[in-house]
Design brief:
about 250 residues, alpha/beta, Rossmann fold, 2 domains, seven-stranded mixed sheet, two-stranded antiparallel sheet, about 35% helix
Length: about 250
């Protein structure tokens, strides 16, 4: 399994994904890891423009020969805003990726940081990762990425994708997730916010007064999973205002 990448093979699942994404004439998609183009070509057939970023040079050149605007390179090192400007793209683009397992964490952080570029974001993720993004406070899966995703987006798991839909067959099921940037989204540095959240959540069974300094009394005896995203973002912004994180 090169680069931990798996490829969608099930035509029914592919059709369902494209229908859920619902491409329209004139849409511009940034697609990361297009692979064989099983989503790319349906998007283009619907009249959308696709700027594909593919790290596998062989696959990238194959897509180019088939008429795809494919950029051969590592998305994690790609300036997407510059890429879109070079192509004269105005307004919001859309984002799609069947995320390679080994870059899930880094891709999420990067696409979260690029959220101002996109009208919506669709991701195929391992199901457990997808569940974390939409988890609510009080649940076992609620954690830092739940807080960030729900602070910056309206996240939704659209449907599960069985592992048999891919080749090679992975060990886990996947899911299609939609993230729509919140209109009231804050200008938050995602990496710094994550750094702030990791400390208390790494000791999630302990009360906040034992893991954080200067916790308001009303939250001192609560555990990390008890606080909703709106409280976490307030605590973070208060902390940044008082003593900027490094």
């Amino acid at each position: 399994m090169r680069l931990s990448q798996v490829f969608l093979r099930d035509e029914r699942v592919i059709k369902r994904i494209v229908e859920a994404v619902s491409p329209s004439e004139g849409d511009v998609f940034v697609e990361v890891g297009p692979g064989l183009g099983v989503i790319t070509f349906p998007l283009m057939e619907a009249g959308a423009r696709v700027v594909a970023v593919e790290i596998d040079t062989f696959l990238c050149m194959s897509l180019r020969r088939k008429g795809v605007d494919a950029v051969c390179g590592d998305y994690l090192k790609t300036d997407v805003e510059a890429l879109l400007k070079e192509r004269g793209v105005e307004g919001k683009a859309r984002f799609f990726s069947s995320v390679p397992y080994h870059i899930t964490h880094d891709l999420l952080l990067k696409v979260f940081g690029e959220r101002s570029l996109y009208g919506d974001i669709h991701l195929i993720l391992q199901k457990e990762v997808a569940d974390r993004l939409v988890a609510e406070e009080g649940s076992k899966t609620y954690g830092p990425f739940s807080v960030i995703a729900r602070t910056l987006f309206h996240p939704k798991v659209l449907f599960r994708i069985p592992r048999g839909a891919f080749s090679p067959v992975p060990k886990v099921h996947s899911a299609l997730v939609r993230l729509v940037p919140r209109e009231d989204g804050l200008n938050v540095d995602v990496i710094r916010f994550l750094k702030f959240l990791k400390v208390p959540f790494s000791r999630r069974r302990k009360k906040l007064k034992n893991t954080m300094k200067d916790v308001p009394e009303e939250f001192a005896d609560l555990r990390p999973e008890n606080l909703p995203p709106e409280v976490w973002i307030k605590l973070y912004l208060d902390r940044v205002h008082k003593s900027p994180l490094k």
